[in-house]
Design a protein that fits this description.
The complex is a heterodimer of chains A (280) and B (292). Chain A is mainly α. Chain A has a single domain, classed as ABC transporter involved in vitamin B12 uptake, BtuC. Chain A is 82% helix and 0% strand. Chain A has 12 helices and no strands. In chain A, α2 runs parallel beside α7 and α4 packs across α9. Chain A is globular. Chain B has 292 residues and is α/β, with parallel strands linked by helices. Chain B has one domain: 3-Layer(aba) Sandwich (Rossmann fold), CATH 3.40.50. Helices cover 28% and strands 26% of the residues of chain B. Chain B has a 6-stranded mixed β-sheet with strand order 6-7-8-3-9-10, with helices on both faces. Chain B has a 4-stranded antiparallel β-sheet with strand order 2-1-4-5, covered by helices on one side. A 3-stranded antiparallel β-sheet of chain B has the order 11-12-13, with helices on one face. In chain B, α2 runs parallel beside α5. The longest helix of chain B is centred in the last third of the chain and has 16 residues. In chain B, 48% of the residues are buried. Classes of the chains: A mainly alpha (280), B alpha/beta (292).
């Protein structure tokens, strides 16, 4: 019990706990739609694309999330536009823009004359350094994202499942697509401080992927992903405290471990199921 | 197996005979396609309210494209498409479009009930939950297609026939005035075919308009009042009994056709196939016996 309470004496730990749980939940909910839409690669692309925004924000002394938000939203819109305009496959447009934007970030970063911070923090996040002000901003943005999903969940579901049928029946499918890209971009922005550019995609994809191994009901899928998104960061943060390991990576590893357990022992794909189904 | 659909005349909503005589769909000189290749060229046709129409033709002949351009999800390159007196897509809530089964991700985590309820989403609007009316509409729709007992089943564990039933339920639940159905009874068992055709016939009798694509000429001849043969252009259009003669079929299917003692064997031109193996033959008979 003491082991659990002891870190709570530190304000930075409590703030980190709150921040990573919020991020975990938002990522899991948004990630569920992302996985159903086959946009995992898109999430990876947008998080990398946010990087130059973070660097520019640092250079002009603006809050990092403003720069990240602008870069990520601009890239998500650009991906849609480039693939439509150039009549290219979506993954091609993503590949071009994602690598280009990340390279721009590295380029700008290497040009900073006397930079004192470290690249590690930019790329992998540092939730323990989150300020009270950043936590409030994060909570507000998280609220906006969750509200948007709560309002449009039906429409997003229909447009994901059968875009043609949804469009024919009057849903603004194209606008929903762009709205969802903006939601992904915003989600990535609020995750950067916690897990950084590189690991965000795991926070988005892994809870939903794990839930998919456990159920084929949409509501339960979201529910399970939500629970994983809430609990894994809490467990992960404690582990990182006790083991003195990087916080973002530990959180992601907890989610990866849950995925592995579901894969091996879950009702839909697990070995137990195989054994039950196999005899005869 | 599936239970039979509800008794006739238990339509989802009362008939609206006034709509029957009006022109619901009008295409004038429509050319449309994908990339640079036109799938339809200079297509003109008129559909009256309450019509029950089969659109037949070879794979790649533009059947699906015709439905999409009427649904407003594909814009015509030239010519005009008028639906309910306005441009295609403007009266979307009165239209139910059901895509081909191959286009659906059957692993998607939704049940039969969820799929049918999607038919209610456009009229519900963002942020609003399904109410009693919506649940009743979905229930009635599922009963009509004989799927009430499978409401909680995930769509991936359904048979081919049940999948088509579930999607027709979605269309019914949206209470449309125009049905655009892409291959609604392709590759399903005979019982399902009969059941679903009975539903469509009832909807048409109630003044609602049905356009369905099909490969199955026998089905078209047997169940639809009007048939339209399409292979890039409209090659035949009229009552089934007049249109489905060997000469018209030869034109529609590009001459790859054999007539064997009253039965017609249609050999699809391999060049028209998107998925099927070259040289594959579809066996059709134009008589009443639709068992293959």
């Amino acid at each position: 019990m003491d082991a659990l309470l002891e870190p709570l004496r530190y304000d930075f730990f409590v703030r980190a706990l709150a921040a990573s749980a919020i991020v975990g939940v938002v990522c899991a909910v948004v990630g569920t739609y992302m996985v159903l839409r086959g946009l995992a690669f898109m999430g990876d692309a947008l998080s990398h694309a946010a990087f130059p925004g973070v660097v520019v924000a640092y250079l002009v002394n603006a809050p990092f999330y403003v720069g990240a938000a602008i870069a990520a939203v601009a890239t998500s819109l650009a991906i849609g536009w480039v693939s439509r305009r150039g009549n290219l496959r979506g993954d091609t447009a993503i590949g071009v823009l994602f690598a280009g934007m990340f390279a721009l970030g590295i380029f700008l970063f290497s040009r900073i004359p006397d930079y004192v911070g470290d690249l590690f923090g930019f790329l992998f996040g540092d939730v323990l350094a989150i300020s009270a002000g950043d936590l409030v901003g994060l909570a507000v943005l998280a609220g906006i994202v969750l509200l948007a999903v709560a309002v449009f969940w039906k429409e997003l579901l229909y447009a994901t499942f059968d875009p043609l049928g949804a469009a024919a029946s009057g849903l603004p499918v194209e606008r929903l697509d762009y709205t969802f890209l903006a939601i992904i971009a915003l989600t990535i922005v609020i995750s950067l401080q916690t897990v950084g550019v590189i690991l965000v995609v795991a926070m988005l994809v892994t809870p939903a992927a794990t839930a998919q191994l456990l159920t084929l009901r949409f509501q339960r899928l979201v529910g399970i992903a939500f629970l994983i998104g809430l609990l894994a960061p809490i467990v992960g943060l404690y582990l990182s405290y006790w083991l003195d390991a990087a916080s973002g990576a530990t959180i992601v590893l907890v989610e990866s471990a849950l995925f592995a357990v579901a894969l091996l022992f879950g009702p839909r794909s697990g070995m137990l199921r195989r054994r039950v189904a196999a005899p005869g | 197996m599936t239970s039979p659909p509800a008794a006739p005349a238990s339509g989802l909503h009362p008939p609206r005979p006034a709509a029957s005589s009006a022109i619901v769909v009008e295409l004038t000189g429509v050319t449309v396609g994908y990339g640079l290749r036109p799938a339809l060229e200079d297509v003109s046709l008129t559909v009256e309210g309450g019509a029950l129409i089969a659109i037949f033709g070879p794979n790649g002949g533009g059947k699906s494209t015709l439905l999409k351009v009427i649904a407003g999800v594909l814009r015509a390159w030239s010519g005009s498409v008028t639906v309910f007196g306005g441009p295609a897509g403007a009266s979307a809530r009165r239209v139910a479009y059901v895509p081909q089964g191959e286009l659906v991700d059957w692993r998607f985590p939704v049940s039969v009930w969820d799929v049918a309820m999607m038919g209610r989403y456009p009229r519900l609007g963002p942020g609003r939950r399904a109410g009693r009316n919506d649940r009743m509409a979905v229930e009635t729709a599922l009963e009509q297609v004989g799927m009430a007992g499978h409401a909680r089943t995930q769509i991936g564990s359904l048979s081919g026939g049940q999948r088509r039933r579930a999607f027709l339920a979605r269309a019914l639940a949206s209470e449309p005035d125009l049905y655009l159905l892409d291959e609604p009874v392709t590759g399903v068992d005979v019982t399902t075919q009969e059941d679903l055709m009975a539903v469509l016939t009832r909807e048409s009798a109630a003044g609602r308009t049905v356009l369905a694509t099909t490969h199955d000429l026998a089905l078209a001849a047997h169940h639809f009042r009007r048939v339209i043969g399409i292979n890039r252009r409209v090659l035949a259009d009229g009552p089934a009994s007049l249109v489905l003669d060997p000469e018209v079929l030869a034109r529609t299917y590009g001459g790859h056709l054999l007539v064997l003692s009253g039965r017609t064997l249609v050999m699809d031109d391999a060049h028209h196939h998107d998925q099927a193996a070259p040289g594959e033959a579809h066996h059709h008979d134009t008589g009443d016996d639709r068992q293959r």
